[in-house]
Amino acid sequence: MSDSNTSNSGISRRQALRQLATGAAAFAASPLVFSSAASAKPSKKMRRQNITLAMVGGAHIHAPDFANRMSRAEHVETKYIWDPSRETARARQEVTGGEIVDDVSVIYEDPDVDGVVVCSQTNLHTDLIPGAARAGKHLFIEKPVGMNGREASQIADIVENSGVIFQTGYFMRSSGVNQKVRSLIQDDTLGDITRLRLSNVHSGAIGGWFDTEWRWMADLDQAGVGAFGDLGSHVFDLLLWFMEGDKPKSCTGHIDTVLARYPGCDEYGEGMVTFESGAVATVAGGWVDHVNPNQIEVSGTKGHARVTNNQLYLRIPEMDINPSEPFTDLPEDHKHPIELFFDAVSGQHNLPLISANEAANVNQLVTEIYKAHKVKNWRPVRTRLG
What we know:
This protein is of the alpha/beta class. The protein has helices spanning 13-27, 36-39, 63-72, 86-96, 105-108, 125-134, 149-162, 176-186, 204-207, 220-223, 227-242, 337-345, 356-375; strands spanning 51-58, 76-82, 99-100, 115-119, 138-141, 166-168, 193-201, 248-256, 268-275, 280-286, 294-300, 304-308, 311-315, 379-380. The strands form two sheets. Strands 13-12-11-7-10-9-8-14 form an eight-stranded mixed β-sheet, covered by helices on one side. Strands 3-2-1-4-5-6 form a six-stranded parallel β-sheet, sandwiched between helices. The longest helix has 20 residues, at 356-375. It is globular, with a radius of gyration of 21 Å.
C-alpha cells in the first residue's frame, strides 16, 4: 500500500512542500518578499572597502563583543556611540573609539554613516529603528528584533520598504555543523522528517549573570521575553532555517521559574511546534542548566542526525558512516553575523544574511508559544514570506 504523503515518482512530502512554497513565493513576488540582502541595491558608496558605522545603544549583553569586533575590523570606522546611559556609552567608546552623542538624530543625519549596530534595550527598538531606516542606514539589530511578534513584523515592514541591508545576531547559522544538518534536511538525505529536538540553555540565573549590568534583560518590560525567549530564540531560528519550505502550523509550550531570582521573569521552558508536513519539534531554552551536551537531534525516514558537544553524529543506513564517530566532512564556518554585516555594507554580495522577515518569524513563533503557555492550549503559527 502506498504512502499518501509520497508520490509514485518518489518525491517526498518535504520536496513537494518546498516546490509548492517556491511556486507560491514566485506568484506573490513583490519588494516585500525578498530578503533585505537581495533587495538592497549597492550604491557606489557601498562598493568601497572602508565603512563608517555607529553603535546605537550598547546595553545588550553581546554589545561588548560586538564593540570588540567593530574595533578589530580593519575596514570599519566607528564614528559615533549613543546610549541613554552615559556610563554605557563610555564603556563601548573605550573599545570602538568615536564620539559619544546625546541625540541619535546626529547619527541619522550624518551622510558619512553607512550603518548602525543597534544593541539597546529591546523596548527602544521601535523608537530607534524607523529613523535609521528612513535615513538609509544599514541595520544590524541584535535579537530579538521586537518586544513581540507584532512589533517585529512592523520593523520588518519598515526595513523591507527602505531597502537597507539587514542583519541580526542569530550566530548559530554560521556553524559548519549546523549548515550540514540543514543540508541533510533540505536535500532529503534524512528523508521525511518526523521529529526534531533542539536545546540552548546555560546557568545564567544560577550564576546571577543578570543581577547588575545586564539586569534589564530579566525585566520583561524592557526585554519582552525571559530566559525561554532569550536563549530559545536562537534555536527557533535554527529550526525554521532547517525546515525552510515546510511551514510551522501550530505551537504550544510550558514556561516556568524555579529559583525566582528575577521577579516576573521566566527561567526555563519547552516549546513544541508542528509543521505542515507532520514533523514535530521540541525546543528548550533556559538559564538554569549547568550543561547543554545534546543540542540538536533530527529523525527522518532515511536517517538520524545528532549534535552532541558541538560534534555531528549520523546514522544513515544507505551511507557508509560510522554512527559512533563524529562526522567531520563539514562546510567551513561562516563569519560571525556582525562580521557578515560589515562585509555586506562594504559591498560584498551573496552573503548568508538573515532577512528581517526571518527574524520577525522567530519573534512571532516565540510570542505564540508564550501565549499558548498562558492559555494551556495550542495556537496557530502565521509566518511572513522570505
